[in-house]
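Hey,
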Amino acid sequence: MTHGSKFLMGCFTAVFTLAALTLVPLQAVSAAEAGPAAVVNGTAISRDAFDRQMNGVRQSLVQSGRLLNDVQLRDVKKRVLEGLIDREVLYQAAAAKGFKGDSKAVEDRLADLRGRFDTQEAYTKALKTMNLTEDILRRELTQNSAIEQFIDKELSKGISVSDAEAEAFYKERHELFERPERVHARHILAAVAPDAPESEKKAAREKIAEAQKRLQKGDDFATVASEMSDCPSREKGGDLGFFGRGQMVKPFEKAAFALKPGQTSDVVETQFGYHLIQVMEKKPAETVPFAKVKETIAEHLKKEKVKKVVEDFVSKTKTQAKIERTPVDEL
């Protein structure tokens, strides 16, 4: 799948899913129309729209290795359908208040999307594969934008988070702000599989030995990594960034955390092959001060408040709406 196709599917995710299940990006082959999946105040939610969402959910489950039994699948269908109904309720409320979406932002997003494909033909083909047209995509993005405007300017009005609320969250969830010891390292890898023939392992050992000789002669680590490493990090001179314990395989972790900044390891063998590791920086375990995370906490708490307001609004509005649902066993 191309990068453009992945982005295209991401564009089509529903703005809010107020059921417990978060809807995933759409990806589907079109299904024949067999009547609407639901009707909200006279506006139909097409079976195609439902099928696109369900196919996205199925693909996500397959990729995660999860299989659903019939009872679980039925429950997922119910949640997907309610998510689509929730979105339609929000859009109708937004339209009633005069929100039309930001057309310029939508067109900019579509232009960005087109630019992610090598040709117009590839773009059109990707849309067709997902049973979409640009007009459908434009309509959905515009509706999403209108919903966002409605939530930002109407439902979120007056919602704020005090310093006291933010500090209380910081104290109650202090474990979220504890950073373990971390190292910033780079490496050179001579890749070879654990079950590779001895001849391949010998070649990998010779390669890492040659890299080690260059380092011992004083060659720059990043230069040697960019020229000899088999890891994609070679594009950054072997730089792996900061990592904590448990993020790397054990032999690699043990060697990296044993080094002092500026030191380079001897050859380290892992399931990926042979490594030379250089630690650039170490940071001890610490608790992030409240002042550094106050704004992030406040933003999180505000989003939670807005989410609750939206959920309550949709729940109340649905009780006053005329909603017809196709039984999920027929979807």
